[in-house]
Amino acid sequence: MSSIENLKAFDPFADTGDDDTQPTNYIHIRIQQRNGRKTLTTVQGLPDEYDLKRILKVLKKDFACNGNIVKDEELGEVIQLQGDQRVKVMEFLTTKLQLQKKNIKIHGF
Amino acid sequence: MSVEELGFDPSLKKKKKKSTKSFEDPSATASPSETTPEVDDVLSGLKKKKKSTASAPGADASGDAADDVTDSFAELKLKKKKKKVVTADDFEKELEKAGLDEVTTTSATEDINKDSEDANSQQSQLGLPYSSLLSRFFQILSANNPELAGDRSGSKFRIPPPVCQREGNKKTAFANVQEISDKLQRSPEHVIQYLFAELGTSGSVDGQKRLIIRGRFQPKQLENVLRRYIIEYVTCKTCKSINTQLKKESANRLFFLVCNSCGSTRSVSSIKTGFQAKVGRKKKPVA
Ligand SMILES: [Zn+2]
């Protein structure tokens, strides 16, 4: 049964080798510890058609936190936000941007 | 005569209906009051037509019969009554049926219970009651093969909770990585790689095989990450067993999870660190 689901869900022989390239369809929300109790939330893999600057602006205002956009050679542009905003970002992406929940992965503890 | 009949029968109906349901009462009380003046009037045929068609749609035959005299009238009334009575009877019958049904179902279950009791008593007569046989079977099974008895709390399935100590101010020592990865039948390197990727940090293994993680982490947080690791890289999706192996297929460089219990195989994605923000004082990229 699982094999049939695999067939229609995604191709296991697609580009998922050992190389560190991400499958572009996933949006990763991660958390990192900074000094002390402070944390940092990163949102990686947002589709290109979105204007990250505008999203960041809204996110900063909504969550009352600072943030910035970091360009990575391999992974594209990544939004960084101060504090643990993972759940809120997830909610924003699903409700405001109509992104599929299954395409979003929340990492961290 | 017909008046008397009317006087009698509706009252009968009333009684019946009162006993069955209260919401039909107004119609029952209304019909005699309507019909009694009609009987007194000889010219009531027209009225009757209207009212009969309006009140009782089933009495279409009244249009033909209304031209005749009181006999036919009475007949009509009788018909009507009969019909009404029949409907009431039907209703009551159905009620009774429903009641009976309930009774029968309950009695049926009782019968089943009785049957099982009978069976039990038969077995107890033979000296071996089913319940004791069953408990004996499970005792033996859990003594010899606890996994088959559904016991997942055995040493093979219990994963010890992560033990961690504070290592200085900014580091956490995860003391039992080795033990946990042994239980999961995974290399500690794989577990550590996943931990670092998920926690967005780095670290090293010290001389006592403890994992030193940069950052402060509670055991609960590490447990959450380990839980996800187990779901992703250890449990068999088919039979939920954690008795699995991780194999690397050299042909396509994919990792496959092979279940030792049921033999099913599934592919797992390799651990990806993804984006790591540069944290701390060092602004320059780490070499
Ligand atoms: Zn299995």
UniProtKB/TrEMBL annotation, chain A:
Origin superkingdom: Eukaryota
InterPro entries in alphabetical order: SUI1 (IPR001950), SUI1_dom_sf (IPR036877), SUI1_euk (IPR005874)
Keyword list, A-Z: Protein biosynthesis, Translation regulation
SUPFAM superfamilies reported for this sequence: eIF1-like (SSF55159)
Cited Gene3D superfamilies: SUI1-like domain
PROSITE patterns: SUI1
GO BP terms, alphabetized: regulation of translation
Domain SUI1: 27-97
Region annotated Disordered, chain positions: 1-21
Any one Gene Ontology molecular-function term assigned to this protein's record: translation initiation factor activity
Pfam families linked: SUI1
Described purpose of this protein according to its UniProt entry: Additional factor that functions in concert with eIF-2 and the initiator tRNA in directing the ribosome to the proper start site of translation.
UniProt family annotation: Belongs to the SUI1 family.
Name of the protein in its database record: SUI1 domain-containing protein
UniProt organism field: Wickerhamomyces pijperi (Yeast)
UniProtKB/TrEMBL annotation, chain B:
GO biological process: formation of translation preinitiation complex
Disordered: annotated segments: 1-67, 101-124
Alphabetized Pfam families for the sequence: eIF-5_eIF-2B (PF01873)
Domain Translation initiation factor IF2/IF5: 154-265
Keywords annotated in UniProt: Initiation factor, Protein biosynthesis
One Gene Ontology term, aspect cellular component: eukaryotic translation initiation factor 2 complex
SMART domains documented for this protein: eIF2B_5 (SM00653)
InterPro entries xref list: IF2/IF5 (IPR045196), Transl_init_fac_IF2/IF5_dom (IPR002735), Transl_init_fac_IF2/IF5_N (IPR016189), Transl_init_fac_IF2/IF5_Zn-bd (IPR016190)
Gene Ontology molecular function terms on file: mRNA binding; translation initiation factor activity; translation initiation factor binding
Composition-biased stretches (Low complexity): 53-64
Family per similarity comment: Belongs to the eIF-2-beta/eIF-5 family.
PANTHER family named among the record's database cross-references: EUKARYOTIC TRANSLATION INITIATION FACTOR, EUKARYOTIC TRANSLATION INITIATION FACTOR 2 SUBUNIT 2
Name listed for the protein in its UniProt record: Translation initiation factor IF2/IF5 domain-containing protein
Organism: Wickerhamomyces pijperi (Yeast)
